[in-house]
Amino acid sequence: MKIFLDSANLKEIEEAVKWGAIDGITTNPSLVAKEHREFLPLIQEICQRVNGPISVETVSRDAAGMVEEGKLVAGIHPNVVVKCPLTKEGLTATRQLTAQGIRVNMTLCFSATQALLAAKAGAYFISPFIGRLDDISQEGMALIRDIKTIYANYRFTTQILVASVRHPIHVLEAARIGADIATMPFGVLEALVKHPLTDIGLERFLRDWESLPAEAKQFKPARQRVG
Ligand code: G3P
Fold it and tell me: Whose CA is nearest to atom 6 of ligand 1?
């Protein structure tokens, strides 16, 4: 399963890139607004830092506006994937953008029937928002399982991008189901690394190492040491 970072924050993006942990980026208007930066230069800077798909969302409500904005952002860098909402206008825009060779991520997906229509419109990614379904007492992961089954039944190639991920168990479940991608905030990515037994084990190893005399702790062979 690929891991995307759901962020428009350059510091977070640079840090995650250093770990070799991320395969792409997703953004949305709320994440972009948090950065208090001019939008297009920010997207350009993200594209310079990450070698993978960068999802950038349109903000028009009508298909013509989405197509216009989509073409503009897709022109920034070949890795840009245009995000369109799962509305009738969004489906229309998806069909048109896809016909022009522009990849589309259909976002704000909350049902399997929406995901079916997105695939038929030619979406490259489908983004079901599982955390927001959990928030209203509907099982977000059940939606991922349904989409996986439907896409397999009809051999749709649209990739399932699990979004609105809130904690590591969402990531674990997405991987168990066989989702193509999970996108997550920086905090969730950090939480995937952490384990208390790793920290305790490392402390013990280093304490034991310290008990060795200085001469025994040299990493260079004796013949290469000066003096
Ligand atoms: O990828 C979509 C995501 O940004 C939405 O997450 O936590 O606002 O539901 P959330």
Answer: 164
- How many CB atoms are located within 10 Å of the residue 2 CB? 15
10 CA to middle of ligand 1, Å? 18
In the chain, what are the domain boundaries? 2-212
Q: Which of 6, 54, 135 to mutate to test the pocket of ligand 1 (most atoms within 8 A of CB)?
A: 6
| Of 150, 141, 155, 58, residue with least CA distance to 104 | 58
pTM of the prediction? 0.94
At 105-135, the pLDDT tens digits run: 999 999 999 999 999 999 999 999 999 999 9
Query: In the numeric block, which tokens belong to residue 210?
Result: 């310290």
Domain range 2-212, its CATH number among 1.10.760.10, 3.30.1490.20, 2.60.40.2310, 3.20.20.70: 3.20.20.70
Is residue 227 predicted with pLDDT exceeding 70?
no
Point out the catalytic residue in the list 2, 18, 34, 83: 83
Residue 101 CB partners (closer than 8 Å, separation 6+): none
Nearest CA to ligand 1 atom 4: 164
Q: Which one-letter DSSP state was computed for residue 83? A: E
